[in-house]
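Q: Here's a chain of 332 amino acids. Please give me its 3D structure as tokens.
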Amino acid sequence: MKKLFYVLFMGSLAIIACKKEAAEEESTVDISMGTEQALDVYYSFVNGVISSADRSGWELEFSVPLRTATIRINEGAGVELYKVGDTTLWGSIDTSGIAGWEPLYNDDSDWMKGAFNLDADGNFNFGWAFYDHANTYNVIGLYVYVIKLSDGSYKKLYIRMRIGHTDTYVLRWADIDGSNQVDTTFSPAPYADTKHFIHYSLINREIVEIEPDKDTWDLLFTRYVATQDNSSGSDIHIPVMGVLMNKSHQGAKVTGISSADAHYSDSESGFSNQADIIGWDWKDSSGTNPDPVVENMTYFIKLSGVGVYKMYFTQYSDEAEGSLTFRQIKIE
């Protein structure tokens, strides 16, 4: 009996050792975003690249879940947004002084705060609209905007409402002088179980399915506008190539410790759902590094029901080539 127990015990140790060895097998990943980083690349730690999509094919990004009203803009494709004022100004918009207007930007840390949502108060005000909870149960638009499209043209835009009982967005846009007006509707309801966001092309007047199924990807390699504090304490906005995390996950960042030794317990802030926990500042812009990535910067991504992955970058090409390399390892 003792001999049988010893054999079983040693066999269990061997299985555990094999599992640990398999779990700690490190791999190298190469990502290509195409010439001039024109592609958005959705990546899974388990299954690799899930999909790549031309970033220039859409202007607006709408949250899918009910009781949300997030609208983001495609900053990486050069889309710009300006709030003009209340809806009575639709017929009198004048963009002659637009060079001096203050643009609106997506929040790069919070997926649910798009450029249209920056004035939201967390209650019934979504920034661009208010939720009429007492009467219609619709989210009703408050403002008109000017939007610069990915092709460089300017349009005036009015997100009229998100209708509650049909889950339908109602949009209006036109040339600045009012010509070529388009009124259209679409519903995110068919994507309720599969997407965080749906994307819309004002140029082509259609939904564009950019995001793969929300449960299939972990990281998005993309271009966006990052918000930074300058020396005077005010914000500056810079276009960057960076990495955004799926809103269902949590991430932690560790600096100042070699990637070989880093553990997520070394993170100053611990795990968070900050979208740009990886972001863009892992790139070394000093010009002295042959593989321009910042040393001793490591990331940990916690996937619900899967485990924790550790990753760190080892190489980054220039923007024209659009490629990068990182190492990943499942640690739990």
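Q: Can you summarize the key feature?
A: The chain has one helix and 20 strands.
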